[in-house]
Structure formats: structure tokens, C-alpha cells
Specification:
Elements lengths: L5 E5 L7 E5 H5 L9 E6 L11 E2 L4 E4 L5 E2 L5 E2 L5 E8 L2 E2 L6 E10 L2 E9 L7 E2 L2 E8 L5 E9 L6 E2 L2 E10 L3
Antiparallel strand pairs: 1-2, 3-5, 3-16, 4-14, 6-7, 8-13, 8-16, 9-12, 9-15, 10-11, 10-14
């Protein structure tokens, strides 16, 4: 349907009158735009210190048409457009040893401060692998930024790894008002 085409509507009340409007008037205020949006992932492993909250370096991108995610230096999302955003992230955490992971945690940080946290505690049933996820709706202005931090805690001095690719991801998009 072209923008200036007419659409006929039948009034089902007693009058039965036909009403007409242009397509542009009919669809005004309908829909919206979920941009900006992005989806990032880890392309390799990262080795944080035990029991230390560390920024997760999501260095690969699947989708970032507006260029709002920095995947090479700050590893952060800066929207450039004010609004409410759905933010989500996950990280695979492992010590690559049987029954060594005591706890894993993932956090959404806004402008350097933790605002949403998710934790997986093994409660003395230590794990080989933990994959915490976190999500939430966050109000952002044009210059706010979002980063993801995580922590792994092991029972020994074994190194911890934030794992790559489909096991660790970070994304977000603007919600339609």
C-alpha cells in the first residue's frame, strides 16, 4: 500500500457509514525502532584471577549496525540514543579441573557501577563448569555505557578461564516506547 492510498473502514454502529483515511495516518504511531542494537561474543579465552571481579572482554561481534559496541579497547556498549534497553549477557567460567568451581558470578555495570548481578553458588557440590547469565531493563542516556564483569571462585589455586564463542555473549537493544 502506498503512503497516500486510501483505506476504507466500515463503521459497524447503526449508521454503517464508510470512513476513509490515508495509509500514512492509519499507521502513524504504530511500530517503532529497536535500534541501536548489538550482539557480541568472546573469540578466545580470558584468564582472570581467582575470586576477582574482572571485566569480560567480548571481542567479537555478530551484529552491530550502528557501531555502538567497542569490541577492541573498552569492551562496552554506549547507545548514543536515550531510552530503555534490554541488556543480556552470559559467560562460561571453568577451572578445567574436576569439581573445582565453587562459584560463578556475572554483573551488568552502568557507568562503572554494578546495577544487576546473577550468581551461581555450587554449595559444596563443586562444579567443572559454571555458566551464569544476567539480564535486565536499564534506562540509558546517550553517553551512558554498559560493561559486563564476572568472577569465578575455585577451591584450589587452579587458573580460571572465561570461555569463548557460543559460551560467552553480550547483547542489547532499545525497547520501543
Amino acid at each position: 500500500i502506498a503512503t497516500d492510498d486510501l483505506i476504507l473502514l466500515s463503521d459497524t454502529s447503526a449508521s454503517g457509514a464508510l470512513k476513509k483515511m490515508t495509509r500514512a495516518n492509519f499507521v502513524s504511531g504504530v511500530g517503532g525502532d529497536n535500534a541501536p542494537l548489538f550482539f557480541a561474543y568472546k573469540s578466545g579465552t580470558q584468564n582472570p584471577s581467582d575470586a576477582t571481579t574482572t571485566k569480560v572482554e567480548y571481542d567479537g561481534e555478530t551484529y552491530d549496525p550502528s557501531g555502538v559496541y567497542d569490541n577492541s579497547t573498552n569492551y562496552r556498549f554506549t547507545p548514543g540514543v536515550a531510552g530503555y534497553y534490554y541488556i543480556f549477557a552470559g559467560v562460561g567460567i571453568s577451572a578445567f579441573g574436576v569439581s573445582l568451581m565453587a562459584e560463578g558470578e556475572i554483573n551488568i555495570y552502568k557507568n562503572g557501577s554494578n546495577i544487576i548481578r546473577a550468581r551461581h553458588n555450587a554449595s559444596n557440590n563443586y562444579q567443572y563448569w559454571i555458566q551464569p547469565t544476567v539480564q535486565g531493563i536499564v534506562q540509558l542516556n546517550t553517553t551512558d555505557y554498559i560493561e559486563i564483569y564476572a568472577k569465578g571462585d575455585v577451591t584450589t589455586s587452579t587458573p580460571i578461564y572465561f570461555y569463548q564463542s557460543s559460551y560467552s555473549w553480550f547483547g542489547g537493544y532499545k525497547l520501543i516506547d
